[in-house]
Amino acid sequence: GIFTSIKQSALLMKKTFGESIVGLVGFSTLSKTISLSCFLTFGLIVGLLTFNIYFGFVAGVIVIIVCSSIVCATEVIFKTAIYNFATDQPTGIFSSDDLEKSFVKKT
After folding, report:
1. Neighbours of 88 (CB within 10 A)
2. Which of 10, 30, 64, 81 is 20 to 30 Å from 87 by CA-CA measure?
3. pLDDT digits over 62-77, tens only?
4. Is the pTM of this model over 0.90?
5. What one-character-per-residue DSSP string does the chain give?
6. Contact of 42 with 79, CB cutoff 8 Å
7. Is the pLDDT reported for residue 21 higher than 70?
8. Sign of the torsion formed by the C-alpha atoms of 57, 60, 66 and 72
């Protein structure tokens, strides 16, 4: 069932790489940085051009939604490649060396 699959995946990742995945922390940081900078940039530009702070806020929120969607899709692709790497399946365009660097080995 689903719980068995989740448990098997967690054990596989823990056994193969330990508990520290660098890539996932990177996506979280990237998402927050891009969202904040885009919100401020586009919000200010639209707000100043329209002389309306509400339009600026709405534009900023729309940009955050678009940026977050792109980062989430990229994160899903990364997680899939990592899982395939851990189970010795093809990883598409990602090389094994690059995926190996995404993890900090447990000592």
Report:
1. 9
2. 30
3. 888 888 888 888 888 8
4. no
5. -HHHHHHHHHHHHHHHHTTEEHHHHHHHHHHHHHHHHHHHHHHHHHHHHHT-HHHHHHHHHHHHHHHHHHHHHHHHHHHHHHHHHHTT---TT--HHHHHTTEE---
6. no
7. no
8. negative
